[in-house]
Amino acid sequence: MEIQNQRFIDIEHAEMVFHTKKGDFHALADINLTVQKGEFVTLIGHSGCGKSTLLNLLAGLTQASDGILLCGNREIAGPSPERAVVFQNHSLLPWLTCHENVALAVERVFGARESKAQTDARCAAALALVGLSHAAAKRPHEISGGMKQRVGIARALSMEPKVLLLDEPFGALDALTRAHLQDELLKIVAATHSTVVMVTHDVDEAVLLSDRIMMMSNGPAASIGEIVDVKLERPRERVALAQNPRYMEYRSAVLEFLYHRQANPAIRAAA
Questions:
Q1: Considering 41, 67, 111, 216, which has the largest number of Cβ atoms within 10 A of its Cβ?
Q2: For residue range 177-202, what is the model confidence (pLDDT) as tens digits?
Q3: pTM of the predicted model as reported, rounded to 2 decimal places
Q4: Was domain 1-75+205-271 assigned CATH 3.30.390?
Q5: What is the CA angle 118-104-140, rounded to 5?
């Protein structure tokens, strides 16, 4: 994937406060982040530190309490097809085929501007990109969990988004399926030159996929604590990387931050 050295996402002094009956909860404090066009950035941290909250701000699903959030020099004021989201739950409609689930997204974005033949071609191309041409006519109950997630990715890609936002997209999958989809994601991102922001708990996943890893401090009032620049050549192959000393250095740096300097006493007590 080629990083174009062009600021594409800008977050300046973002804050997120949730107002509850028990009082105000400060989820995020003074978040500052720049993502370059074509860059793969991962947010990692302990559970409850605000990773998904930050991703929701980028998606426009929630509005920041304070600060500036820009995408392509335009304010993020709400959801937009230019920022497609893939959640841990694929959220496919069970009564529709894989092709029809993708078509819903295409019709939303392109609508009357395209004919049915153009819509069908766009859906077919998106499913082919994730290796699911053979499953286009199947319904969600007829395919595996990993395939459902790939349909979710195809649905997001069919909208031709400028940014792909991934919230633990492989978190509910078994280890082998997860590894396979990580490899597929590497190929998809290389083919589409997508700008990606991903949330994960998986350190190895973060190092394998990312150009930069944003390590978040524990909440409340979480912030971006440290940043790891992953200077590993692409394309990446997991077996070769596992033997690369630099890979182990990046992995160790993330673990040092998360489990030593940001260690949760409750986690230590339960161990």
A1: 216
A2: 889 889 989 988 888 889 999 999 99
A3: 0.89
A4: no
A5: 115
